[in-house]
UniProtKB/TrEMBL annotation:
The lineage of its organism: Bacteria, Pseudomonadati, Pseudomonadota, Gammaproteobacteria, Oceanospirillales. One of its GO terms (molecular function) is transmembrane transporter activity. It holds the Pfam family MFS_1. The chain crosses the membrane at residues 28-50, 62-78, 99-116, 128-147, 167-186, 201-220, 278-303, 315-336, 343-363, 369-394, 406-423, 435-455. It is a multi-pass membrane protein. This is AmpG family muropeptide MFS transporter. InterPro entries: AmpG_permease/AT-1 (IPR004752), MFS (IPR011701), MFS_trans_sf (IPR036259). GO terms for cellular component: membrane. Keywords: Membrane, Transmembrane, Transmembrane helix, Transport. It is found in: Membrane.
Amino acid sequence: MQTEHAEHTLSWKEWLHSARVYLQPRPITLLFLGFSAGLPLMLVFSTLSYWLREAGIDRGTITYFSWVALAYAFKWVWSPIIDRLPIPLLSAWLGRRRSWMLTAQLLIALCLLGLADSDPQQNLELMAWFALAVAFCSATQDIAIDAYRIESAEPRIQAAMAATYMLGYRLAMILATTGALLIAAWHDPGADSYSRESWQMAYWAMAALMSVGIVTTLCAPEPVPDGAAAEQKRQEIEAFMEQRQHLPHALARLLGWFYVAAYCPFADFISRYGKPALLILALIGSYRIADVVMGIIANVFYVDMGFTKIEVAEITKLFGTLMTIVGSLVGGLLVYRFGVMRILFIGAVLAAATNLLFSALALTGHSVGFLIVTVSLDNFSAGIATAAFIAYLSSLTSISYTATQYALFSSVMLLMPKFLAGFSGDAVNLMGYPLFFAGTAVLGLPVLILVWLAARHAPVQAEATHK
């Protein structure tokens, strides 16, 4: 009995010791950078869909409008530029990673101001262009932050950094959803009627909050460049130029730069994994399909079900996001203790299963209590799955091509789910909410097979556990 008690006590001491990883400087820095990354996404996704629906825009147009978020799925196209090209003067001052982060953050704030001054009832096209600009600059910021995170610490604490990143990300989502909805509601107390001015005030406030990321970028240290990786890239460029001596020197160097920046990251991934690389890409491309396809229609669903701005803000945004934060912290700790692949599988099961709760809510009708239960379980599960998934993507990335490879992975992650999500409004019009949500749960089932197969080819660091 005493032995069992001692083992139990030791186990809790080990858990507490493991939790200290969240107090290290790098995870704390990623907390604030995660905030900067999470703020703009919801402002062109969830919150914007609520604004558009309240303005009288039809469901189909709103979900097509969500395709501006495909900028996140195509960020691999310009990620080689961010991975290799310095910004004149600014990079000499801040370093390559922080200079790109700061530039993107300033542009996001300016584009949010433009979005705030748009009116969907008068010029929906102009609003779409501003939303696309926000998404493009936000995706650029993501590329730089992901490279910064991966280059800043060893793989052992990447899951903890991913968890604090998600904590900051979700806190920003609270403000970008709950905060924006509450500001809009407070500025227009007769909240049943549409008021452009109330949304304008909300988006002005969100633009001001980008200062959190700007200040963090200015204060955080630049990661120390990997000398071996830099030397490898230099040698690859020189080898490329030697084979093309018939070309002008400047042109050969430019082509060599593109070869190393754009081609080599993809070739490196394929050479490291061989045929299983296709399996891994299939898993990445489908892992989040259940929650992304469901998520784009969620705010429209809440409006159609008769939930008020206050109810949506307090339950689905504030409380729901807090549950996601708890889930991400739990997920980061579980990954740190037990490895990525087990938690990745559990997260996939939960992500698909919790969508069935939305089908039940659609059949139940306006029920605040049922909404709380549904949102709690759905968001907690999403937090666990996301923390494990970010750690998995990080484990696949070579330190020589951090920005480009991670951008490729995160782009593949979003491409198919975001594309399919654009049709969700028409799907709901055709089959209704209960059957639609059940269908999104079914979409998540093949992911379980892919996780099981990919676990056989998991990187060493992905499966390592803390002893």
